[in-house]
Amino acid sequence: MDQKRINNRLPVAWEGIPFIIIGTGLTSILLILDWKFLATPLAVLTLFIIYFFRDPDRTLLNEERAVLTPADGKVISIEKLDNGDNRLKAPAIKISIFMSIFNAHINRIPIEGKIAQLSYHPGKFFSANRDKASVHNEHNIVALETDYRKRIVFVQIAGLIARRIVCWVKRGDYVKTGQRFGLIRFGSRLDVYLPPDSTLMVKKGGKVKAGQTVIGYLR
Q: What's residue 186's pLDDT?
């Protein structure tokens, strides 16, 4: 478990710092050379990078049996899966959350428990809001055993622009609700698989915020 990144006290994620330093340095050099026509767009790009990698403090919600969204964004689909041909390997409710480039991209643990499995899969880079992205895109599967003897699965999925999935936890780690566990660079998606008897608290099209919005309750 990468405690430095999980317990980050900076206003931006550590992964964004190299990009910010490079952008700031190049902008400064261009200004010194009085090349304002190049410095101005580079400064705007650097400001956007700072905005993209922001890591805001959150007042975390911690209700009994509540499953929180692992990502900021928009709920783009909710499916009830009756067979075991899915990431949970059992009947499940699948909730897909799309993160645009304007959302905060820090991913957070949905509910307290133990990381039972991690499985990274390289793949393609279709737009993350398309159905086939769940299967064909680069993704990282995280299975978690909750304290309520229920298993949930959440999947980090790279998108059209996203080219790197980052995960800071490992198998066997005990994690807390709302704890940071990773990010995906530049637009992406998370799928969450809940047991079929879970009580849903979100609808398609709803906006959600990591660490604060309840997407469901375990029974």
A: 67
